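Write out this protein's structure.
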Amino acid sequence: MYEGSLWDKILKYAFPLAATGILQQLFNAADIAVVGRFTGDKGALAMAAVGANSPLVGLALNLFMGISLGTNVIIANSVGSKDERAIRKAAHTSIVFALLSGLVLAVLAELFSGPILRSQSIPEEVLPMALLYFRVYMFGIPVIILYNFISAIFRGLGNTRTPLMALVFSGLLNVLLNLFFVLILHMTVEGVAAATVLSNGVSSGILLRDLNKPDSPVRLRRRELKIDGQILSRILRIGIPAGLQSSVFGFANILIQSAINSLGTIVMAASSAAFNIEIFVYQVFNSFAQATTTFVGQNFGAGKIKRCKKTLFLCLGEGAVFLGMAIALVLFFGKRMLSVFNPDPQVVEVGYVRLLLIFSAYYFSLTYESLSGYLRGFGISVIPAVLTMIGVCGVRITWIYAVFPRFRTFSNIMLVYPLSLATTAVLLLVATLILRPARKWMKSENGSD
């Protein structure tokens, strides 16, 4: 990553990462599709129940996926500086931290699942299924968090293919288990939740095995499976702000989901189906944003600052091209894709409205995600988190409480996405121009010479 041409290496890194995200979402979408089409007259209720859980589950996962970025950056910096000891410590610390955090979160979710879901304005006819899905899913959250942290280890090493291969196998298993639990055992939402947990457990096991291969730079040893305080502090210093930045979306989306829930089951089902399609496109530009973090992290560790700036521009340019292609493809097939989840014409039409409005904001998302990744690669994590809280959370909360009550339509709810993401992109652009981390590091290097 810190030698030779960049543009082709970025593509080789980003494509498997995008494929991983898309496949992961495709397998998650199978949950919605299976319960929507194979649970008889409960289909719309089951879809609404799974969809109502998306913001809550996303809040937890976004927090820990953000923290795992700390692992990604620390390992990338250590690879650049060729510090093998720090690589091993970061890997072992991350695995132990992931498991312990997951166990704590699982216990808290089981204890407070009822009050949490009842606060989301979920219709009474949907609530029992939503509660059942949430409890089963959160019971298995330790292995889901573990998978994300091990994937971050591989990404920091510059390897995005191994997590992709693990996901292909476990994702196919997820689809088969979905069909088995729902069609054979006649389960509903609890079946697809159990399938997700079991398949994530399998993918975590595959990645752990690959970390232990003889040619792996991170061979796990039992005596080293402990938390190193200094390494954890470095991971959390970058990861917690990044996690808060990610979970801001989850918190704001909980408020948005509550507003969506107030518009009835059809709108809930349509929004859930559209979300599971739009996230495919999100994975395309997000892969370039994550490439920015890892490439900048390794080059910063190697002291090659000019390559850090070049990485940002290449990721923005290449990301913009492939994002446009993905949006055009999904919009062309959008209504047919929505009908896979639920053929009801009302669900399809409302879902397509969401796709149009969300995609209008995705270039703003590419911009601010890439800028955030650029700053994190230099170890600057607090400022992107604070600006995202202002731009995303501030705008969305204001809109839902001040504007939506006056115009209670689904389109009005969806307008908050382009508004909030454009605001955040402008804030991150201004911050990057002010901070100029590459220029400052080059000046300090010249001064030291």
